[in-house]
Amino acid sequence: MQHFSRRSSSADANSREKKVTMAEQRWIQTLFLLILEFQFTGASYFIRGGGDITLTSENMINHQNNCDRTTWLFSGSGNTAAVELVNRGKIQTESKSKSHRLSVTENCSLVIKKVTDEDAGRYSCRQFDKPGRQQGSDSEVDVSVVTMTQHKDTDKVTLNCSVWTYGLCSYTVKWLYDGKDVKNNHSNLLTSQSSCTNTVHFLTSLYQSNSFTCELTDDDTNQQFTFTLYPPTEKPGRKTMS
To answer: Where is each Ig-like domain found (predicted)?
Structure first.
């Protein structure tokens, strides 16, 4: 009996080890899936507010009839719930501030006219077969919008540069004058900075607005936008792959 008890105890220990091992494996698998869920492998665009942008999909099905297998969705900069912008090639009217500025090209790319800060976010293109089953995973595009404004008060001018992104903004925003950092090279210029926003104040007798450039940087990106009051309406977004 004692010999049987030792064997039983040993078997119980092995069973517990197997259970722990299986639990660890399930935990590792769950963690791996969570990591995959938060990875982003699409494209990202920077666009100046007021410009136009065309978003393309990497998984587009060929030979569609008026893009009847294509749906575009949008999730705003605050990670808001996704809304349909285009359903099977047809513009949806739920997004009233956006729908009148949307169109779909012959190859089912999404065109956004006169971009505003509200257009910053993640755009997902979804493909379907004829019976209505989704084909493959969504093709995702992140759009960041840069806005620059000018305010004049007699001989004083204030320029503001802000970037609007999907999720938390990780960019450093600063002003350059003739290509040099304002903060480090122009002590008589007053600047103020907060999260993804930078403001500069100056006298018109000393500086010219069109010599200022707004620079956005992070670990992977360096984008520069020269200040102009009225950006061209036909201007493609600047694209970076991530």
So the answer is: 71-144, 155-228
